[in-house]
Design brief:
The chain has nine helices and ten strands. Helices cover 37% and strands 13% of the residues. It folds into two domains: 30-281, Rossmann fold (3-Layer(aba) Sandwich); 282-341. The chain is globular. The protein has helices at 3-7, 47-67, 95-108, 141-148, 169-172, 194-201, 217-234, 283-307, 314-337; strands at 35-41, 75-79, 91-92, 114-120, 123-126, 129-132, 139-140, 155-160, 177-181, 244-246. It is of the alpha/beta class and 341 residues long. A seven-stranded mixed sheet has the order 3-2-1-4-8-9-10, with helices on both faces.
Length: 341
């Protein structure tokens, strides 16, 4: 794992509370709905994917705590290997631990709270065997759906960014629930890029389409979909992942959701924020985070280039690698010196 990743996944702590002081005896106000975030990375299969999935998950947890005001206890990251980020990854992402984490969120959250669960890794779908690949026995779509029944009185979002994730939609769909999948069905089973861009949406000003200084799940979905399409075009590859969103409970996802479409109304009102208080981060903090997110993107590109080395001319490979390393060095220098992008 890069030194960048180790240095940029620190977690903030603290508990948001609201107290209403009235004349006479103090009265404690009804707390506003809180948001709970569970991020899960499955098995990578090889170090390249394991490290890649970790960088995406670590970025999301960092954005939540440093940019969106989440208390550390409201953010749980389960990963394939805890040694990738000791103290940040709360536990190994085997089936039992994942299901127990859902149970704990159900116990500590309240009706009306928001819960978002993000799956990052590999997935498979063969007939009725629809699986998220985790250490040990895989987690099936049905097992996850059964566990989520405990959260029926919360506003829930499940974001499955894995290959074949489209097959999960019919299992996970329910009223008052947003289900996002990186693919249109189980047949789209190649490595997906959706997670990287979905995570970036919450730190990118460009994702805030209505300019209200916060990003809804609908805006994050649209941003990620556009950026995935652009990445494939720039790489001269045929698009092999078509994301979909379902939030009306009918089990049928939409590729182009919106407020006036069959899907998109609930996602447009679901904001990844600690409470209904807006974005608490400062301009300086947002600028610093933007540099760190861009550094993670550069690390992703460098590692991806290394994997394609054998298919490139040596001079082409060296030119590309040098350009990326210089860009990363300039990014890190700007971050150390506190310069705004």
């Amino acid at each position: 794992m890069s030194g960048y990743c180790r240095s940029t996944v620190g977690m903030a702590a603290g508990l948001l509370s609201l107290v209403l002081i009235c004349a006479g005896p103090a009265v404690v106000a009804q707390e506003r709905p809180q948001t709970h975030l569970l991020v899960i990375t499955g098995v990578g299969g090889e170090d390249y994917y394991g490290d890649l999935f970790h960088r995406w998950a670590a970025t999301l947890t960092q954005v939540a705590t440093e940019h969106l005001g989440f208390a550390r206890e409201h953010v749980v990251y389960l990963g394939e290997r805890m040694d990738r980020a000791p103290g940040v990854i709360a536990g190994v992402s085997d089936k039992a631990t994942v299901l127990a984490a859902v149970e704990r969120i159900a116990a500590r959250s309240r009706p009306g709270d928001r819960v978002m669960i993000v799956l990052i890794g590999h997935g498979t779908a063969r007939g009725d065997r629809v699986l998220f690949n985790v250490p040990g026995p895989d987690l099936s779509a049905k097992e996850l759906a059964d566990a989520l029944g405990r959260l029926s009185d919360r506003t829930l979002a499940v974001v499955n960014t894995t290959p074949s994730s489209g097959a999960f939609v019919q299992y996970l769909s329910a009223p008052n629930r947003v289900v996002i999948a990186a693919t249109s069905g189980g047949a789209e089973n190649q490595h997906t890029l959706f997670a990287a861009h979905f995570v970036d949406a919450f730190a990118e000003p460009g994702a805030d389409a209505d300019k209200d200084e916060r990003v809804s799940l609908l805006e994050a979905f649209d941003y990620a979909r556009r950026e995935v399409d652009r990445a494939y075009r720039l790489d001269h590859r045929l698009l092999s992942e078509h994301a979909q969103l379902d939030d009306n409970g009918d089990g049928i996802g939409s590729r182009e959701p919106g407020a006036a479409a069959a899907d998109g109304s609930l996602a447009g009102r679901f904001y990844l924020a600690a409470a209904d208080t807006g974005d608490p981060s400062t301009a300086q903090g947002r600028a610093s985070l933007a540099l760190q997110v861009e550094a993670r993107r550069l690390v992703d590109r460098i590692e991806g280039l290394k994997r394609r080395k054998l298919g490139l001319a040596q001079s082409d490979y060296e030119t590309r690698l040098e350009a990326l390393l210089v860009e990363l060095a300039l990014n890190r220098r700007a971050h150390r010196q506190g310069r705004l992008p």
